[in-house]
């Protein structure tokens, strides 16, 4: 057994506490050999939410689990389906686009932050095509316009375009969608289309 494995981080008799009481936020160190510890840590993390293999590798490294034990445990977890980067990426991509309204490139960036490789990311965002992006951007604009109706038209335009930019949509698509939404409105909204045209031409 490697030195240090099998010991608990439970602190004995902290001041003011009962015997064997673990301080809040200081979970008990799993006991056993490196692979047993790795399995317990991974199961605990996967109970909280889906994790990529890279995230689990990082978590185990921070806990001092040897790389060979990490590899064996994660290979087994992958084999039985507890770790599935492709499935997790697909689920996350759909959720980020549908629920948060993120554009394809913003979704891809979120997935890469989870340690997923480019091939998996590209496959996961493949279904977010231009038509789906445009439709979702229009939904965002229509929802937001209802809260901006009391503001001057030029302010509405800036905020709508900025909203789409923050979600990762290109400036060309953002201006096009906002222009389309305003053109379908009243005369005041139609006037804002002219403002957009002026902005786009400068």
Q: Return the structural class.
A: mainly alpha
Please bin the fraction of helical residues: 55-70%
Mean pLDDT: 83
Radius of gyration: 25 Å
Question: Order of SSEs, N→C?
Answer: HHHHHHHHHH
End-to-end gap? 70 Å
Number of strands: 0
Overall 3D geometry? elongated
The stretches of 5 or more residues where confidence is low (pLDDT under 50) are 6-28
- How many alpha or pi helices? 10
The main pleated sheet reads as: none
Strand percentage = under 5%
Summarize the structure.
The protein is built from ten helices and no strands. It has 202 residues and is mostly helical. α4 (85-98) packs across α6 (118-125) and α8 (153-166) crosses α9.
Structural commentary:
With 202 residues, the chain is an all-alpha fold. The protein contains 10 helices and no strands. The chain has helices at 34-48, 53-62, 67-79, 85-98, 104-113, 118-125, 130-148, 153-166, 171-183, 187-201. Helix 4 (85-98) crosses helix 5 (104-113). The longest helix is centred in the last third of the chain and has 19 residues, at 130-148.
